[in-house]
Design a protein that fits this description.
single chain; alpha+beta; 189 residues; 35% helix
Length: 189
Amino acid sequence: MNEPNLPQLVMTHEDLTKLPSLTGMGLYQLSAFRPGDEQAWETIIGESFQTEFSFEEFMKKDAAYKPERILIVWKDGDPAATASAWHHPKLGNDTGYLHMVGARNAYAGQGLGQFVTHAALIHMQKEGRTKALLNTDDFRIPAIITYLRLGFVPVISHESHADRWSDIAERLKDTGLRAIIEGSLLHEK
């Protein structure tokens, strides 16, 4: 996790207009949140973040809450992954906010995080957003890899970010993804 008192890392996607079409995931089904899905969302996010989250407190009470903005991937009735296509007016009308992305441990490594994140970005696009922003934690390396693959790049918005992004780049085996981070760091200097 992040050290206490350090802000989360920030990433941005500057052009949602160039997203490829979303292709199906075979045995998995994608749906927007429906009443009764609260426990499914809590299960996915609880496993992903290794702590409990209350859907009521963390999602439904948020001013950005609209059920159709919360996407859930299912397999045979079992909740597998989720992502939310939030919008905060303070970001402007053109920028969406990728919120609460996670996949259950049993489904790790199957591409569901990328699939549901891609679906959330397409939802933002349908709402008229042309850009997206997200916050993430240093330890969420699989999520960061997904974000990089989908076109997100690091933003240096705190004095600690450059060093933290450098540390993450060193841990990545994919040199292309490492180059994206390193390019962002050079751009910020």
